[in-house]
Amino acid sequence: MKIDKNEIIRLLNEKKALLPCHRCGTENFTVMNSFSKVILQDDINSETDIEGASVPVAIIACRNCGAITFHALGALGVLQG
């Protein structure tokens, strides 16, 4: 899957995801060049199943302190089409 960083930025702006960094308050972010998957587990006490269900996410990083936030690509509409 190829991710269009400008589309991610446009969608985050459209959805008003504009608050400053939750750690340092800086308003300067970058959309990483790759995406990740958050693994879903039914039971917090079970062993991690890396082959199980997951949610593809865009990785957004604060340019000042490096704090990372994830945004679900499906919820942003990136996976449609």
Would you give an account of this structure?
The protein is α+β, with helices and mostly antiparallel strands. Helices cover 17% and strands 31% of the residues. It contains 2 helices and 3 strands. A 3-stranded antiparallel β-sheet has the order 1-2-3. Strand 2 and strand 3 form a beta hairpin. The model has no long low-confidence stretch (mean pLDDT 89).
Concise summary:
By secondary structure, this protein is an alpha+beta fold. The protein has helices at 5-14, 73-76; strands at residues 29-39, 54-62, 68-72. It has a 3-stranded antiparallel β-sheet with strand order 1-2-3.
Number of helices: 2
Q: Give unreliable regions as ranges.
A: none
Sheet with most strands: strand arrangement: 1-2-3
Q: Provide mean pLDDT, rounded.
A: 89
- Quote the distance from N terminus to C terminus: 12 Å
* Biggest beta sheet summary: 3 strands, antiparallel
Order of helices and strands: HEEEH
